[in-house]
Design a protein that fits this description.
The structure is a single chain. The protein has four helices and 13 strands. A hairpin with a 2-residue loop joins strand 9 and strand 10 (about 165-170). The protein has helices at about 10-15, 20-25, 50-65, 115, and strands at about 70, 75-80, 80-85, 90, 95, 105-110, 130-140, 140-145, 160, 165-170, 175, 210-215, 220. It has about 240 residues and is α+β, with helices and mostly antiparallel strands.
Length: about 240
Amino acid sequence: LGATPGPAPARAEAERPAGDPAAARQAAPPRRGPRSWSEAVAQLAQHGPALVAVKRRLLARAAELGFAYTNETQLRLRIADTALAPSSVSGSRHVFELPAGAEDIVILSRTGVPREVYPDSNDSRRLGVFIGRIHLQDSTGSRDLAIDDPELSEGWYPVETEESRPFRWTDGCARLRLPPAGDNPAPAASSPEALAPDILPGPAAIRILAIDVHRVVPSWQAPAGGTGLPIPPGPVGQDPNP
């Protein structure tokens, strides 16, 4: 009777264990603003003309700031711990002279993301090179390696077909296992081009690997004093500056 209420609530808060959800709710300020995009003033555009228009403006601004596209593949092979550059490049064909015993190979290249360079693309894959043919030649003969071989899995995207021919994108670091030297069965009769004796340059005694790159996705380069290249208008993988 007549007792003055003490600071019991304060003690109770002080004694509340750390991390108690009730304490967190009591201490947190009330939430303001929309709880979802449907309640927001700004619209969320994940596709459609509005998004394409915004991306075009952003890409144009990037070019004004000096960012530029490059279509260089920087195609090379990694064999053990060594990077091997092509001995020759003619059009889409990159030719490599392989060292003795090279069987476990990684195809390396520059990469690009379609939606980062094409305003109308939502493709977020990081793509390396679009390969249409891999050809191996040595002293025993020559053969095409199957692009649709299920063993091509690490660093390879699924097979795509164009004009009834298989193609595959790499992710910029694709593993390729070659048959041992001397293990070179005759190519299928349905592939007469593979039988052509002059399909690859160089002496037959050298083991040669030829890779045909049909497309790349342009990738960004940091400003180097230029104004950059025009925004590529074409579909995924199309060269914006033929």
